[in-house]
Amino acid sequence: MAGSVGIVEAKRAAFEEPFRFRSGAEIPRFELTYETYGTLNAARSNAVLVCHALNASHHVAGTYAANPEDVGWWDNLVGPGKPLDTNRFFVIGNNYIGGCFGSTGPTSVNAATGKPYGADFPVVTVEDWVAAQARLADHLGIERFAAVIGGSLGAMQALQWALAHPDRVGHSLVIASTPRLSAQNIAFNEVARQAIMTDPDFHGGHYYEHGVVPRRGLRIARMIGHITYLSDDAMMEKFGRALRRAAPGFDFDIDFEIESYLRYQGDKFSTYFDANTYLRITKALDYYDPAGDFGGDLAASFARAKAAFLVVSFKSDWRFAPARSRVLVKALLDNRRIVSYLELDAPGGHDAFLLEDPRYHGALAAYFGNIEL
Amino acid sequence: MTRPDLETIAQWVAPGARVLDLGCGDGSLLKHLWERNQAHGYGVEIDDAEVLASLRNDVNVLQLDLESGLALFQDGSFDYVILSETLQTIHRIEFLTREMLRVGKEAIVSFPNFGHWQARLQVLAGRMPVSEELPHQWYNTPNVHLCTLADFEDLCAQLGATIRERAVLHGGRPVRLLPNLLGSIAVYRVTA
Fold first, then answer.
1. How far is CA B102 from the centre of its chain?
2. In angstroms, how far is CA B153 from the centroid of its own chain?
3. How many angstroms separate the CA atoms of A96 and A100, rounded?
4. What is the pTM of this model?
5. What are A73-105's pLDDT values in tens digits?
6. Is residue A353 within 8 angstroms of chain B, CB to CB?
7. Complex ipTM, two decimals?
8. What's the N-to-C CA distance of chain B in angstroms?
9. A342 and B51: CB-CB below 8 Å?
């Protein structure tokens, strides 16, 4: 029987050397928050790094003693007897640099000023996240990951690991992702950023000093995001045209269930997520393009990868549609890399990567099961 | 390896070759080719359960629809492109055959022979054939393009493809006499 990893604790690793971002900006030191599940074997060969997407964190599996309701975001995948089996693998979740769940980011205190970085925190990239994670791997004594796995933006990190550290990754699992954003993806991100930056409470990113949060902007950014995470069919199935009140109100209060849902999601998000982090994450998404240094030739950019790849897409995902995964698969095939590709007819839209589907989880269980340690 | 055409295919595939297996099912041919010949490559399969079975067999599998062609694969990037017992389920056979000959240095194709005497007899008796090789009823068969040896050879000629080798089987044994009448499975090695 599959079970939970149980009570877990977040840990912190501090790195007392300067960190240089891809932009050229530098910070004198940084910390990463992480969690681990399972046991590192004597050969140190069973480590799996889990990378999170936009709003998740290092809390991948299990619960906290102080807060049993706070279940990890990928708890359905990670645990004893689960597809990513913690009886066999040593699994690491981490909050990326620039995040707002404990790792050094815009809310952290800038030692030079004694105030939070705020707008002064550098713009982060997927490359920066992986560079910081590599320091964490060193800190934990992990020379090589059996696998790096992520969905969406997390999958971009799994890809980047295979490119930046070809000898440190056995398998790269790239789920519901794309090697680079489309103009439409960037457009959605820009609307989200504009929502935040035009909020009167934004104060150029130094809102902490004013004791406010650009809540309205964050809320709208989250609502836009949510629309792209669900498929048209999934949204229709879940909410339809159902009304929240007995009859149309002929006003601008909530009529439809979907409006209520989006407002709820937006409100919830705006209470716990940092706007400066949100801005930076969307930029990291926009900038990521492994082919950028190769004249746009994706196949050329993957020549240096050595990992075996599992690429998974979902047919109902219109944010990162299967065609975008196929472009990646083709680049890998052109380089004769070891790759398997799943294109699942799952209804969940982009968020399908977080859901439990027997075909999807069965495939991951089979794949992880065949990884030799 | 229970299907007799698969053993023939395995004998034809050179050691260390690069193989693309179209409609790879549970990946057992690729697994066998790796264990027997250290030939390696990828399977293409559309069915969820078969894709999962291939993954369990530790075979590289790509979930794609063959009807949309082999656009993910470069010209001449495989030593062999195999289509075993799948031809008869394909809608765009001419298109896929051209694609196979583009991507592979050789194509290996096996299919049930509709010209086998038992099939002919059943049609003569006024019924669609049902046999070990063609187990479905007419109304639930996945087969859309059944053909005989002679038909397939005509197609190759029409596409300008050269047949390099042919094996015709029945009950797991080679058939040399009147193959289009006595053979129930045909296996071809074809080049552009």
1. 17
2. 14
3. 9
4. 0.96
5. 999 999 999 999 999 999 999 999 999 999 999
6. no
7. 0.94
8. 29
9. yes
